[in-house]
């Protein structure tokens, strides 16, 4: 039985299309006060509170706690979710998409890269860039990211391992710059991620391959392009996302810009 009412939330168009598509069943893979994530086909979709960071696969609600949506009782991992008819139905408690959010990262021209790198250097990246990848791995990612994927995908703890966050930043940046290495990297990510990392992280990597990123990451890129004086504040905010997720994406962005500047793979 479908819920008589469904809580509205904001999400990407693809999430709304998934809820409106052919009915199917998924299962809860994570449940907490800030977010509940469930499988839908090969993807993971989140239902998040107003305090959680919006991501390209989440439905952002106005609830102070996700438990409010489920009458005070969070679903358990493994609980069934029915997806279809425009709703994600958790045993009578439904969520729908009431508003679209654009997660696309704005494109930029290669000619803008030197100014972006200069603005980044002004923020003293050595003081905030994480040191969770060996220098040799970082250098390999800069030179040929697709060939280095197997060394970083799934590396780190959490629902989105640090190495995956770095790859998300690299992939989204190369795509936005129309870099010739981007298609090969996107192909390799699509091939490797499902079997090398978490389902949520694989979903976010696929979304990065479609050009979708966290709004906080997009804000950093926009600041570097248009308002360099605002870049330090945007970077500081992104670094607060997740345990190391924001920092990982920033590292990926830096590596991608360096790759574009000194391109050494792909004709």
Automatic annotation (TrEMBL):
Highest taxon of the lineage: Bacteria
Pfam families: AllH
Matching InterPro entries: AllH-like
Name the UniProt record assigns to this protein: DUF2877 domain-containing protein
């Amino acid at each position: 039985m479908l819920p008589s009412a469904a809580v509205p939330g904001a999400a990407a168009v693809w999430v709304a299309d998934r809820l409106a598509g052919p009915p199917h069943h998924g299962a809860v893979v994570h449940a907490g006060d800030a977010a509940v994530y469930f499988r839908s086909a090969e993807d993971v979709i989140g239902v998040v509170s107003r305090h959680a960071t919006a991501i390209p696969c989440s439905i952002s609600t106005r609830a102070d706690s996700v438990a409010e949506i489920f009458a005070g009782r969070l679903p358990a991992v493994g609980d069934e979710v029915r997806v279809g008819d425009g709703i994600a139905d958790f045993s009578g408690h439904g969520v729908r998409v009431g508003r679209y959010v654009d997660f696309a990262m704005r494109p930029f021209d290669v000619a803008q890269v030197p100014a972006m790198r200069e603005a980044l250097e002004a923020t003293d990246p050595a003081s905030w860039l994480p040191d969770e990848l060996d220098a040799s791995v970082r250098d390999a990612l800069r030179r040929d990211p697709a060939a280095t994927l197997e060394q970083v995908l799934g590396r780190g703890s959490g629902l989105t391992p640090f190495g995956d966050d770095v790859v998300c930043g690299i992939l989204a940046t190369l795509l936005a710059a129309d870099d010739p290495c981007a298609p090969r990297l996107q192909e390799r990510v699509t091939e490797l991620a499902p079997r090398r990392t978490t389902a949520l992280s694989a979903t976010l990597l696929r979304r990065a391959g479609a050009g979708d990123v966290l709004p906080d990451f997009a804000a950093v890129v926009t600041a570097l392009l248009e308002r360099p004086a605002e870049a330090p504040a945007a970077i500081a905010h992104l670094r607060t996302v997740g345990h190391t997720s924001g920092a990982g994406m920033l590292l990926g962005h830096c590596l991608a810009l360096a790759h574009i500047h000194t391109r050494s793979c792909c004709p």
